[in-house]
Amino acid sequence: MKLLEAVQLYRLSGKPQLSKSNEFIGEFFASEETVTALKKLTESNVYGSLKTLEIDSTLCRPNQISGALDNLQVHQKVKVVIRCPKGEAIRFFKDFDDLLSLPMVSTGELPEAFYIINKDIFYPSDSPDSITSLKNLTELITSLKSLAHYHDSKVGHDRLKLVFIANNDGKNKPVVLDIRLNESLLTNGLNNLSIVKNLTDGSGINDIHHQAKLGIFVSSICEFINGLEPTLAFSKIASEWTDFSELFQNNLSVYLCGFAFNQAKKDIAETEIKIAEQLSKITSDLTGKLFSIPLSFAALIAMFNKDTTWITNLILCIGLLITSIIIVGVIVNQSGQLISVIKSKELFDKALEGEKNLYPKELDNYIKDMNLRLDNNIKLAKNWLVIFRVLAWIPILIATVIYYLIY
To answer: Whole-prediction pTM value?
Structure first.
């Protein structure tokens, strides 16, 4: 027999008062539904039992009840005494407090079916706001159980205690939530459990911030209950869930902003190092090539030797010209690389510019200092390339003048 049949008969009987022995008397006219329900009551007494049966004021003996129900006609007047069981999870409860006193509910579980007498609510068929709140409450308990470091459910204690270890000021402090439930917890705004769902969702383990979020969640609990007794801590969290959610989100935002700030500093520092290395490489690659410039000046001395002929000096001039062209070619190539470095820096500046107004002052100052250093290094590299280019042409120009004056 399902609890539903007992509830149907109770409602048809006008929802009478239950006696001390947990029985109620029902009077109604038989229908196909009531006949079916009464027959199921005789088949099993798990959720209720048919104690007496009167049909048209005729009392049926216990051994006559089954046969009487088989012959029961629609519209005959029926009077029954039905006993509802006690101590079962699937049963009648006088109110929500009676239901919430069940140990299984404090652990986040609901009976498969139940009936709340004073609210005339049958679960799972009826779904008023109070049932939705009840489901959310048990879901919150279940989520907190999975997030707690350990549970404390000693023999002889009907309630569950959840223990979280909060790391405050370098000290591990236990935060205890003694799960005590009452009907007042069903009238709050406990309607958005996304923060605990995200923390308990299996996919959240892949989040690089998962462990940090768990720590922030526990710290937020500690901050929110602010030293309350364990017996009051859970009630405060459940009844003021919206406020707790805002506190957690604010604490999480502070952490994520700090993480983003440090990550941004790291990215900027790495970019600065890369650009500085490229600028250094541009000038260092020219060093070996530029040693030929002093040698070119030394070659000019040979042109003043009386034993040299015009052909020798002409060949010397051609050699100096080729050397200058090669050096200038290298400088032009390095100038192209410098342009690429400048473009890369400009792209990075544009990427930073998009959220510049959101950066804290420390990060903004860091970016300004970086730009100043890189701009100075770029300017210095440009100047050196110009100087090297000029120096590369001087030997051939001097040689040309000397050759012209001599010949």
So the answer is: 0.61
